[in-house]
Amino acid sequence: MTVHPGGARRGFTLIEVAFVVVVGLIILAGVITAYHANKSQAGGAAARQRLQLAQTVIEEFQAQTGSPPVSGSSQFSTMWSTRYPDQATISPWGGTTANPTTGVSEDPPWMDGTTDPATAPDKTATLTLDGTRSSNLHYTSIDQGRYVKVLAYYTGNSRSLKSYVLSIYDNTGTPWFDVAGGTR
To answer: Where in the chain are the domains?
Structure first.
């Protein structure tokens, strides 16, 4: 604020007002960025928790029957929606999943691969796992005795999995946000 001789107050200059507006916008941008980062981290934590719940369902089925559910047959989708109906219809990223009944997408079982995890083919970008699905939980069984190598984007680790691959799509639809599966 400018004070002139004689005590007259004239108000703020244009430069002072512009400075305050710019500082306010910078603070607001920082707050919005932090909010979105926290929201994404919370969604990621919920997605990883969902992955662990789904893995438990598959392992229980495998313990009872001797093999994992066959993907594409709706065995896993049915078990998942029956066991956790609230998890099946809500995406941890916000909103609902593509399949309002099961919340799961499945591909036919993988029949190729190898019995040696060190030479397992990388399935990260094959078999229609291209990020176009809007369901955030994906299940694929693997033909018995075979391994598949998958890269988990969340951890950056490549894992060789046997029996099944269970993965989460991130909030932008990118597959393999995190991945779990059989290792026996």
So the answer is: 14-181
